[in-house]
Design goal:
The complex is a heterodimer of chains A (341) and B (500). By secondary structure, chain A is an alpha/beta fold. Chain A has ten helices and 18 strands. Chain A is globular, with a radius of gyration of 21 Å. The chains are: A alpha/beta (341), B alpha/beta (500). Chain B: InterPro entries: DNA_mismatch_repair_MutS_C (IPR000432), DNA_mismatch_repair_MutS_sf (IPR036187), MutS (IPR045076), P-loop_NTPase (IPR027417).
């Protein structure tokens, strides 16, 4: 499954890159994409929230920085903008504020390093992507995140690239298994019934938890967050065809439901999008075997997996082997961003 | 908005529908919002200013209807106006502005030029909304004279900067062409040194730009004020169009005249029920005017409507009526049963007394408007009557215009003006009762449909309508209760006649 990464993205205008963990090489992937696109596309860049310190805030390993070409458009928080060393032309202000200041749109008048700190709300992310396109970006790359903190979903982008790497574990097999399972989660099926989507969207608009029943009627249940809502879910499962959950669906939630009832058989647990599923493989399999179903309202279009066989903590895998093993196990194109393969 | 409580308390303003009206104002820019925030009733000595304000609102109102197309064009730049006051403040303080700040000031100057031309085309003789040309600001922030809406520290500002950037570009070209990783690293190091030089020189340029810009801050601020005024006046004019506002006259006599005045909040609520607000007409002279009338006859709404429209007029808004005339007012008070004070440990009557004390203090010192909404209804009726009678007689001796709504009979003296809610006076009660019997669920609605909310001037000694018993009958209260009440009523009448 070898093809040019540019070929893969050519039909999409907004592409997000999400990493399985910190230091998996998300920025390396981004730089790889940027270098490939050089001279071909005018790029727009932004990120979901903040993920671009010079040093990783947790592990203190130096992180690679994003290096862009002249004429690239970036949308980033004011503070982050002034930390970027491109010659910058200010093109627009957005009225969207982050802890690092308002998000500013600037054009790079020189090559250089940029620091990205974008919006953390899906709606803002969408607006900014559209703005970048409206002022001339051919492609918008979104430095995404796969964590519980950000609400903004990479599902707003037309395509998503998953970044994985040796940093996950010194044991290559473990990394491979984890990656394969993450791909499985991210590609959980989209709910295809239009009517259900309409009802689910109504539920998600105003509450954290809702149910759609056999006859098509639906209701919402007031809960602070869905994380601790197993009791409410169990209580309302009778006759339900769908459980609609806003926000993160945790391993604990699913386990709690499974230990309290068996009424979830044949019931669809509907998440906003696949990045909200934080479930262990074991639980996932158990749940499905017992007849539970996961689906999403907004699907993620995962187009490829980018791998980094080198861990910044000092070890590396056999790059070729890592790549080949993943290619065997996945139905997606896999790229090695370090080897340039 | 911080308005002196002499012109209603925050809670009373909410009750009379003032906050509702303000929420309907379409103020667009941060500067217009600032004008709104600072809006307050004009003082007695500011009468000329207030009259000029009416003049301006009137001009804009006419213009809005005449030059729709230009106004449509004005909206676009107006919506783009951002708050740059913080940057201007920093500039005055001698701070160095950054690229984003220069960008925002440049955008403001561009929009300001656009607005200057468009507003100019309206040919309005309003000094407050005249914008000055910001060409010097634009020339400073747009040395390439492209007049496009972006900004960077242009090469034109400094030859040194231009040289540094050329070097930077050259090394970036080398980095791009190089394939050897080590060499790339070395080149990147070199590049960082140049970046440091670039940033240093950019800072110099920004320093000098900030200094040059300081000279023009006055000009920019003048336009900020003009845009804010234009925005606010336009919002006032639009509101007047939406709710049929009228240019009021300020009179030198002490009298208030409302012809067909309405309350937008109540009118809008009624509209959702497919009903209409009955416009009210009243003339108040100095001293006490008494409104009596049926239960549910809208006396409270009437008082609120007067207070609301007077407050708006005092603040330079057009009141919502066919005709309004009033004198400059030193205060507007509204006394009614205050449920909140009960939680403060005061009885509702206690709270009224406290408020009345304040009102009387003000009345001794100036001339204003006072609405008393069924005061003393929370106390025993005998004492209540004496107190209301005493207050209305006392207030009748002052220049302020007091309007008192009451159920009590015998409050009105010959030298007071008396208005009555027409109410159910012309209604055939038996017919009405039948209708309600058939459709009991909608009894309130049916009653409201038959209620005539208009005020009519009546003889001072015209009897207070006795609708309470009728309403009991209409709503079908236990017959025995009604019959007992009628017996007492007749007995009392008989006694009174004997006394006479």
């Amino acid at each position: 499954m070898r093809s040019d990464i540019l070929d893969l993205i050519k039909n999409y205008r907004t592409i997000s890159i999400i990493g399985m963990a910190k230091n998996v090489g998300k920025t390396t992937v981004l730089n790889y994409l940027i270098s490939k696109a050089r001279g071909i596309y005018t790029l727009g860049l932004t990120s979901i929230g903040r993920d671009g310190e010079e040093y990783d805030q947790v592990s203190f390993f130096p992180k690679p920085r994003i290096y862009v070409e002249e004429s690239t458009l970036i949308a980033t928080a004011r503070e982050a903008l002034f930390r970027s060393d491109i010659t910058k032309e200010i093109v627009g202000t957005t009225g969207i504020y982050t802890p690092m200041g308002e998000i500013i749109v600037a054009r790079a008048l020189s090559d250089g390093y940029v620091d990205l700190a974008g919006p953390s709300i899906t709606k803002d992310l969408k607006r900014i992507s559209e703005f970048l396109i409206s002022i001339g970006a051919d492609k918008v790359f979104i430095d995404g995140a796969l964590n519980r903190k950000t609400q903004a979903s990479p599902a707003v982008s037309e395509a998503t690239i998953l970044s994985t790497g040796a940093v996950l574990s010194p044991d290559m097999e473990k990394t491979i298994d984890e990656t394969v399972f993450t791909v499985k989660l991210l590609t959980v099926q989209k709910e295809s019934d239009r009517e259900i989507i309409v009802k689910a969207s109504k539920i998600l608009k105003n509450s954290n938890l809702g149910f759609i029943y056999e006859g098509g009627e639906y209701k919402t249940v007031e809960v602070l967050t869905a994380i601790d809502a197993s009791k409410e879910i169990v209580e309302n499962l009778n006759g339900a065809k769908y459980v609609v959950i806003r926000g993160v669906i945790t391993d604990k939630l699913i386990n709690d439901v499974m230990t309290s009832t068996d009424k979830y058989k044949g019931v669809v647990f509907l998440a906003e999008d696949a990045t909200k599923l934080f479930i262990e493989e074991e639980t996932f399999v158990k749940f499905q075997k017992a007849g539970g179903i996961f689906r999403v309202v907004f699907p993620i279009n995962l187009i490829c997996v980018a791998v980094n066989p080198i861990s910044p903590t000092g070890y590396r895998y056999n790059g070729k082997e890592f790549l080949n093993r993943l290619r065997e196990k996945l139905d997606l194109p896999v790229f090695d961003v370090m080897g340039g393969d | 908005m911080v308005i002196d409580i002499k012109f209603l308390t925050e809670k009373e303003r909410e009750q009379v529908g003032f906050n509702y009206v303000i929420s309907k104002l379409q103020v667009i820019t941060p500067y217009g919002r600032e004008e709104l925030k600072n809006a307050r009733p004009y003082k007695r000595e500011e009468r000329e200013k207030l009259e000029r304000e009416y003049e301006y609102v009137d001009l804009l109102k006419e213009s809005l209807e005449k030059d729709k197309e230009i106004f449509f064009k004005i909206l676009k730049p107006l919506f783009k106006i951002k708050d740059i006051r913080n940057s201007l403040k920093r500039c005055i303080e001698g701070k160095v502005l950054d690229e984003v700040e220069f960008y925002e000031i440049k955008i403001f100057a561009l929009l300001s030029e656009e607005l200057r031309l468009l507003i100019g085309r309206l040919n309005l003789d309003i000094e407050d909304i005249k914008l000055v040309s910001l060409t010097p600001v634009l020339d400073l922030l747009d040395p390439q004279k492209k007049r496009i809406a972006t900004f960077y520290v242009y090469d034109e500002y400094s030859c040194k900067l231009k040289e540094i950037r050329e070097k930077k570009r050259e090394i970036e070209r080398q980095i791009f062409a190089e394939t050897d990783r080590e060499k790339i690293e070395k080149l990147r190091e070199e590049r960082l040194d140049i970046v440091a030089l670039e940033q240093k020189e950019e800072l110099e340029v920004k320093k000098s730009l900030s200094e040059k810009l300081r000279k023009y801050v006055d000009l920019i601020e003048k336009n900020i004020k003009a845009i804010g005024r234009f925005d606010f006046l336009m919002a006032k004019a639009k509101l007047a169009i939406e709710y049929n506002g009228v240019k009021p006259t300020i009179n030198d006599e002490i009298k208030i005249l409302f012809e067909d005045v309405i309350n937008p909040q109540v009118a809008d609520i009624l509209k959702t029920q497919e009903r209409e607000f009955t416009p009210l007409t009243i003339e108040l002279k100095s001293g006490t005017t008494v409104i009596t009338g049926a239960n549910m006859g809208g006396k409270t709404v009437a008082l609120r409507t007067f207070a609301l429209n007077l407050l708006l007029a005092m603040m330079g808004f057009f009141p919502f009526a066919k005709k309004v005339s009033f004198p400059m007012l030193d205060f507007i008070h509204f006394v009614s049963e205050d449920l909140q004070s009960i939680s403060r440990g005061l009885s509702s009557f206690g709270a009224e007394v406290m408020k009345l004390k304040e009102v009387i203090e003000d009345i001794k010192k100036g001339t204003g408007f006072v609405a008393l909404d069924e005061i003393a209804r929370g106390t025993n009726p005998e004492e209540g009557l004496y107190i209301v009678k005493a207050i209305s007689k006392y207030l009748n001796g002052f220049s302020s215009m007091t309007v008192l709504a009451t159920h009590y009979e015998g409050v009105i003296e010959d030298d007071m003006v008396h208005y009555q809610v027409v109410g159910l006076k012309n209604v055939n009660f038996e017919e009405l009762r039948q209708k309600i019997v058939i459709d009991e669920e909608n009894s309130v609605k049916i009653l409201q449909e038959h209620m005539d909310y208009r005020l009519e001037r009546v003889n001072p000694n015209c009897e207070v309508p006795k609708d309470a018993l009728n309403i009991c009958r209409i709503f079908g209260l236990e017959r025995e209760v009604i019959e007992l009440a009628e017996t007492y009523y007749k007995r009392r009448r008989g006694y009174e006649r004997e006394q006479a």
